[in-house]
């Protein structure tokens, strides 16, 4: 518990106090936001706002986690480091995209396929590392099985021959990573929207990781009568600590990112956060639970898919005034703050449903 509070507190302190320093630095470097010409007219005033704020969030998350481990004397774990690796890797892809926008002086950076290639490379590296480094009990950070609240019977790595099993597992990992990172990226369109929703999603993994630690199959303190309910998960407490660090970093960043935002996450931040969320889901063996925990992100991404499909099928007609769907409500006349807060409520309800489903599965066993 001390490590959780320390990680969250130090990461929060980092972003709360140092974000203005980065805002000034980014302005000097001319790292300002460019606005879509077809977007809501109310967004034109945001042009030039400091972007790439994801750099601050990533640095704060790493600082919070590392400092908490050193202060408490705990050990660094592979699972937590893999979460940070995914976050940094996808953050780097997003940074290249953001940097190209500032260099080209336009709102388009990396091409769609180039961005996908970057995401796939990070996903493959993560996937290969995650099925190695077994602990003393033989548990690896990721088991290779498709999971909901814990591993299901379908283990992709057991598909024969082994080479095909590894390929199928990497395809599944890539699907999860690209879908989640792009969904969070699409959600990042209003001041504080993606930041607040990510606080709720990542915060759920603080709860899940800490619960799994208390009910770990590897814990000698686990009551014998509850052993059949235990979680065969590696490093759950360390995963909860890194989730707490990311959560604390986001809370401090939201102080400067809320409307009117003085700094944006940029693709650097939104893609990094998508990576963190999916990595947390994989190491806690709750991959399919992302359908609930990341419910708002799915709605946002789904609105874009539906809009484009309907546009093509009907040769130019639209379901929404603009996608992602948060822009639809803006164009209907909702104030930006109203859209953000109501979407936070939706995100919170989905997260409550996800954590609730996780707990219900445990008590129903």
Automatic annotation (TrEMBL):
InterPro entries, alphabetized: Glycosyl_transferase_4, PNAcMuramoyl-5peptid_Trfase, PNAcMuramoyl-5peptid_Trfase_CS
Domain of life: Bacteria
This protein's UniProt keywords: Cell cycle, Cell division, Cell membrane, Cell shape, Cell wall biogenesis/degradation, Magnesium, Membrane, Metal-binding, Peptidoglycan synthesis, Transferase, Transmembrane, Transmembrane helix
Membrane topology of the entry: Multi-pass membrane protein
PROSITE patterns per UniProt: MRAY_2 (PS01348)
EC numbers for this chain: 2.7.8.13
GO CC annotations, alphabetized: plasma membrane
Catalytic activity reported: UDP-N-acetyl-alpha-D-muramoyl-L-alanyl-gamma-D-glutamyl-meso-2,6-diaminopimeloyl-D-alanyl-D-alanine + di-trans,octa-cis-undecaprenyl phosphate = di-trans,octa-cis-undecaprenyl diphospho-N-acetyl-alpha-D-muramoyl-L-alanyl-D-glutamyl-meso-2,6-diaminopimeloyl-D-alanyl-D-alanine + UMP
Record pathway: Cell wall biogenesis; peptidoglycan biosynthesis
Top-level class of the enzyme under EC nomenclature: transferase
A Pfam family this chain is assigned to: Glycos_transf_4
GO-annotated molecular function: metal ion binding; phospho-N-acetylmuramoyl-pentapeptide-transferase activity; UDP-N-acetylmuramoyl-L-alanyl-D-glutamyl-meso-2,6-diaminopimelyl-D-alanyl-D-alanine:undecaprenyl-phosphate transferase activity
GO BP annotation list: cell division; cell wall organization; peptidoglycan biosynthetic process; regulation of cell shape
Subcellular location: Cell membrane; Membrane
Positions of transmembrane segments: 6-27, 48-70, 76-96, 116-134, 154-178, 190-213, 237-256, 263-283, 289-311, 339-360
Binding site residues for Mg(2+): 185, 267
Swiss-Prot/TrEMBL cofactor(s): Mg(2+)
HAMAP family (UniProt xref): MraY (MF_00038)
Functional summary from the UniProt entry: Catalyzes the initial step of the lipid cycle reactions in the biosynthesis of the cell wall peptidoglycan: transfers peptidoglycan precursor phospho-MurNAc-pentapeptide from UDP-MurNAc-pentapeptide onto the lipid carrier undecaprenyl phosphate, yielding undecaprenyl-pyrophosphoryl-MurNAc-pentapeptide, known as lipid I.
Family affiliation: Belongs to the glycosyltransferase 4 family. MraY subfamily.
PANTHER family, sorted: PHOSPHO-N-ACETYLMURAMOYL-PENTAPEPTIDE-TRANSFERASE, PHOSPHO-N-ACETYLMURAMOYL-PENTAPEPTIDE-TRANSFERASE HOMOLOG
Name listed for the protein in its UniProt record: Phospho-N-acetylmuramoyl-pentapeptide-transferase
Lineage: Bacteria, Bacillati, Actinomycetota, Actinomycetes, Micrococcales
